[in-house]
Amino acid sequence: MKLLCWNVRGLGMPRTVRRLQQMLRDLNPSVVFLSETKLRSAQMAQVRRRCGFTKGIDVDAVGRSGGLSFGWKNSCDVSLRSYSQRHIDVIINEDYDEKTWRCTGFYCAPEEQHRAAAWNLLHQINDMPGIPWLIIGDFNEIAFLNEKQGVNKER
């Protein structure tokens, strides 16, 4: 199974949607997680369906930030566990080799004062130790200062 995770930084522009569609055609993933869509859930659902992912869950952006989408193709057996402004948590059953695993799409708060709550969310939903768990997304964390891009480099 192929999975694509992308921080799209906004799908409001037709050019970005075309780029997403091309990437999905080239890579042909079964599951896609998009963060920072900056769209309302109804708008994101339209984009997701146009990209060939008829099933999924979309979470509203708040103002001009955030927004999540987790989509999967009809051939996938995916069950939604929970979602919030910061995560979408699903169980994936792969019929061809009878494997069940968990995938959580995560978007950590970019503001430092909100990060602890976002990380605590992962601790709270960590309630299924018996199956493999993949956490994907944008953690808004860096290991080394030289990894940081942008104007605010003193953190």
From TrEMBL:
It comes from the Eukaryota. Signal peptide: none annotated. Residues 5-144 form the Endonuclease/exonuclease/phosphatase domain. It holds the Pfam family Exo_endo_phos. Transmembrane segments: none annotated. One of its GO terms (molecular function) is catalytic activity. This is Endonuclease/exonuclease/phosphatase domain-containing protein. The lineage of its organism: Eukaryota, Viridiplantae, Streptophyta, Embryophyta, Tracheophyta.
